[in-house]
Write a structure and sequence with these properties.
By secondary structure, this protein is mainly alpha-helical. It is built from 14 helices and seven strands. A hairpin with a 6-residue loop joins strand 1 and strand 2. It starts with a strand and ends with a helix.
Amino acid sequence: MLRTEKAVSPTTGEVTWLLVDEETYRPHPEAREFSLYLRGAGRSPQTQRAYIPRVGRFLNWCAGRGTNWKTVALGDMTRFKFHVERTPIRQGQLPSGKTVNAVLTAVCEFLRFCAVQGHVAHDVAARLSEPRFLASPPTGFDPGEGGQHLVVKARVLKAPEIESAPATLSQPQVTQVLAAAHTARDRLLLTVLVDGGLRIGEALGLRREDMHLLPDSTHLGCRTHGAHLHVRPRQDNVNGARAKAGRHRVVPLTQSAVHQYREYLAEREEVSGTAGCDYVFVNLVGSWAGRPMSYSNAKQVIERIGDRCGLRARPHMMRHTAATRWIRSGVAPDVVQTLLGHASSASTAVYLHARDDDLRSAVDSLTKEAAR
């Protein structure tokens, strides 16, 4: 059986997620190559951390059935899909279609990588995809001469997904969460996420040079007016933080965020070791004080704040909250797409879904109109 382990380089500190044999701790060679490929391709540490256990689940399933994963057939993949769908996860609950598809995506990408590297036959990976006509090409899509590029390769096996609006916080809950933060750092982090819509990796990768808080930043070589921050893709963040999209963008900041940043700087100056650290968000206490916050630390901080308020709070929920508030305030979807750093409008479209209370309000409004 294989299990997932985190390997940390003693020289660079870089993390590689591996599948190792439970008895010998020998790394699975193809999975190790795949993990290194993900890191070399610039995929986020969270993507690597998510993909490798999913691949391990597939390899363990094959081993348990006596199936050679290198010659897996479409029928085998179908049975694996059934296995994932019917295996309960938390508290006996079956996985959603989105969760099943996430597992299949990781496995298919692993098999395609192995086909390119010559570890498996090309037809093993080829049979997992089929040509499909792209009915609604994204904005800016080039169909090529004659439109032949409108045919793309799509995964054969896919679980149905129930489209629903992402979980968000209401405005009273946002106020409650900010009030429950015990430090200026935590309040600033929450504000950057919930007002600026940043991903947690983008926030943790911010450097002090990225914070342009004056009305005019031309003296810094920046022509953007008003308080704002710069999300810059960097590959050398010591805390593993990564800007997922890999593109630079500018995010305006509210005056509240500016005041909170000033308060945080005063708090930060009281912590030993922060003078030589250019990262915005650092640890304030403990043996790691003065060093950049990690994803796991920031996640725990936000979850604890949510627990104090008696609600579920996660870093990405803050981003969902920002996007939903913009859409419902009448901000154009293309502006929201730019603020969020989405490469495709399809990623932003999830925030256009109606919620249950929207449906109820629509029906009730017609009932009231008919009663007049």
